[in-house]
Amino acid sequence: MGVDNKAVVQTIKEISEHIDIIKKNVRAMVEERKRVNKIADSHKRAIAYCDDIKEKYFDVIRDSVDDLELLVDNEDWPLVKYREMLFLR
After folding, report:
1. Among 2, 45, 51, 64, which is disulfide-ready with 18 (CB 3.0 to 4.6 Å)?
2. In angstroms, how far is CA 42 from the centroid of its own chain?
3. Is-contact 57 23, C-beta < 8 A?
């Protein structure tokens, strides 16, 4: 048809990459949480949540979600975006 759809294909690839990163890290985080939840000592469990879960997974997941928010049109994004939550009253 002679239509240049390179930009659309690139956007789809970017969205797919972010979704893959999110899915992979959420699965890994869930498994890590199962391990950490078995720690009886609450202080050690809290440290493990901070060091073994938040540090390894939270920021990676959050970065990909933030990037997705910028790529996906507002009409197609079903959740409140982080930047919108900052200004809710």
Report:
1. 64
2. 27
3. no
CATH of domain 6-85: 1.20.120.1560
User: How far from 64 is each of 2, 25, 43, 61, 87, CA to CA, in Å?
Assistant: 33, 10, 30, 5, 21
What is the SS3 assignment for 41? coil
The domain limits of the chain are 6-85
- Single-letter amino acid, residue 59: D
CB count in 10 Å sphere of residue 65: 16
- Tokens representing 66 are 């933030």
- Single pTM value for the model: 0.77
For 12-66, write each residue's pLDDT tens digit.
999 999 999 999 999 999 999 999 999 999 999 999 999 989 989 988 999 999 8
Residue-wise pLDDT tens digits, 9-25: 899 999 999 999 999 99
Nearest Cα residue to 15 out of 87, 82, 77, 58: 77
